[in-house]
Amino acid sequence: MKQYCRVGNICSASGFFVLPNTSTYSVAKYTLESFSNCLRHEMTPWVLYISIIESSALKISMNEVYASILQDVRKQLSTDIQQRWEIDFSNNLIIQKVNSPYITHAAYPDKIVQVVRHVVMNKNPRICY
Prior knowledge:
Elements: E1 6-10, H1 23-42, E2 49-53, H2 61-64, H3 66-75, H4 79-84, H5 87-98, H6 101-104, H7 109-121
Parallel strand pairs: 1-2
């Protein structure tokens, strides 16, 4: 193995702070961060750098239609499930998600590209971005 290789795992800020109704996503991101930290220690003898890139949400076209995507998913549920999850409750949940600071303050993808470039090209990349 060549020395001074670099690995950049793109995690999420949701790995260390969670929002309501994102438990599965947050657990997966926390797990990737934990795995990256373990791997960093294990790869030290080979001078393999492991960096974690903790991104927030990204400003992408999907965010603009996020509410309609969630409503379409709700409409595809069986009538029984729709009745259990009352329309008002699910509409409030959709509004919460769309208006969450995580979405409204999303970063531009170019910023993440710059960070990845830094991880890959820097001789001593940071542990966490």
